[in-house]
Every structure is written in C-alpha cells, then in structure tokens.
C-alpha cells in the first residue's frame, strides 16, 4: 500500500524548482480567480526576468492576482497572459497591448480547449492532500477538466484555506481510481512543491458531477 504522506514529504520542491522545469514556448493553463497558483507563476516570472526563458503563455479566467506580466512591458516576449475573461487584474494590460484576450462564450470554453489547445502544464490551487493521496479543486472547476485532459503536466498549489468539496473535481495519486494518469506532476505547498505519485483525474462520476463549489477568498499561499 502506497504511503502518500511519506512520498509527499520525500519529493518536496520549491516553487522556483518547479519554474525551472518550464521551457521556452510553453502554454500553461489555469482556471478562475483563487483557483490560480500565484506562488508558481511568480516563480516563473522571476526566472524569466533573469534568464533567456521566452515565449511562455499563461491562460486564465478572472484575473485576480497582480501578476508581473500584467504590470508593465519588462516581461514582453518572455511571459504573456492570455485571459478567457478579463477582470481588473488584466484590463489595463489588455488596453496597453501587454496581454491577449481569448474571445469566447463561457459555456463553450471546455469545447474550445479540447478542440484547439494542447497545454504543456495545468496549474491549480487545491485543498491539502487526504490520506488516500487526493486533492480537491474545491473552489473552482469550471473548465479544469478540459485543461487537465489536454495537459502534459499538472502542477498544484496546496492551500490550507481551500475547502474540500464533497462533490467536484479532484486530482490524486491513486491509479486504481484514475482514468487519465499524469506521470509528471508537482504540488506547491505554500511556496514548496511536491511530486506525489501519478497525478490523475478521478473517474468517479459522482465526484465529477458538480463543477463549482463554495468559494473562500482567503489564500494562504500568498501570505
């Protein structure tokens, strides 16, 4: 029987070490608002500022964090945001030509993602791991399943303030309960990251039936 807690502790990485895995030209996907991963994205931006890393595109919905690539043009050509639904964090950048907007109807996002995109990584904030090695996406799961299906790697930030949803999407390290195994997955735990077995999408239809859950606005990752 796999000891997921021991595996979690064995393979912790810093967010900067996760960022070091990002390659030129990567397309990274995130879901909405506090389902995003500021620790990992900030680390990617720091790396881009001090290295030849270039051409990284980050797609997201409802931009609530003050990401560096939205602030000014110092990351132009290195890291660019692509918003599926521009909120306050992205509008000035879009108006200044520092970011791109993906025209869409919200209801069609999963279909567009599956039809038109292949992601090098999907990043998402999750609840702490349970004893079975699973993490709940908790607050958001709007188009997460589509991005997970189209992503080569899954990177998740563990946020102790993310509620564990009774229903909704989960990712985990139990291949027996999985339908789409991801062999290269990392977890950021308040600025640190962990490789926990084969991260995959749970195939339990009850757990996949509810796409949204109660939203908590406090984010421990940023503190």
Description:
The C terminus is likely disordered. With 223 residues, the chain is of the alpha/beta class. A nine-stranded mixed beta sheet has the order 1-12-11-8-6-2-3-4-5. It has a single domain, classed as Glutaconate Coenzyme A-transferase (3-Layer(aba) Sandwich). The longest helix has 12 residues.
Radius of gyration: 16 Å
Major sheet details: 9 strands, mixed
- Tally of strands: 13
Q: What is the count of distinct domains?
A: 1
Distance between the termini: 35 Å
- The percent range for helix content is 10-25%
CATH architecture: 3-Layer(aba) Sandwich
| Helical stretch tally | 7
The CATH class name reads Alpha Beta
Predict the CATH topology: Glutaconate Coenzyme A-transferase
What is the fourth-level CATH superfamily?
Glutaconate Coenzyme A-transferase
Mean pLDDT: 74
Order of strands in the sheet with most strands = 1-12-11-8-6-2-3-4-5
Provide the low-confidence segments as ranges: 174-186, 190-223
Instruction: Work out the strand percent.
Output: 25-35%
Helix and strand string, N-terminal first? HEHEHEHEHEHEEHEEEEEE
Task: Label the overall shape.
Answer: globular
Helix vs. strand class: alpha/beta
């Amino acid at each position: 029987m796999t000891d997921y807690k021991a595996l979690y502790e064995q393979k912790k990485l810093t967010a900067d070490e996760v960022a070091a895995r990002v390659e030129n030209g990567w397309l990274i996907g995130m879901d909405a608002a506090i389902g995003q991963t500021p620790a990992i994205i900030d680390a990617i931006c720091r790396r881009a500022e001090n290295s030849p890393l270039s051409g990284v595109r980050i797609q997201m919905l409802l931009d609530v964090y003050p990401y560096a690539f939205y602030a000014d043009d110092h990351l132009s050509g290195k890291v660019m945001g692509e918003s599926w639904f521009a909120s306050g964090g992205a509008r000035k950048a879009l108006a200044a030509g520092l970011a791109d907007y993906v025209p869409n109807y919200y209801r069609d996002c999963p279909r567009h993602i599956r039809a038109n995109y292949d992601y090098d990584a999907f990043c998402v904030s999750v609840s702490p791991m349970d004893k079975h090695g699973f993490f709940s996406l908790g607050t958001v799961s709007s188009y997460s399943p589509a991005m997970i299906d189209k992503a080569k790697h899954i990177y998740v930030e563990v946020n102790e303030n993310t509620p564990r949803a009774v229903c909704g999407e989960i990712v985990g390290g139990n291949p027996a309960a999985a339908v789409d195994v991801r062999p290269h997955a990392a977890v950021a735990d308040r600025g640190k990251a962990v490789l926990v077995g084969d991260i995959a999408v749970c195939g339990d239809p009850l757990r996949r039936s509810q796409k949204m859950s109660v939203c908590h606005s406090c984010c421990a990752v940023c503190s």
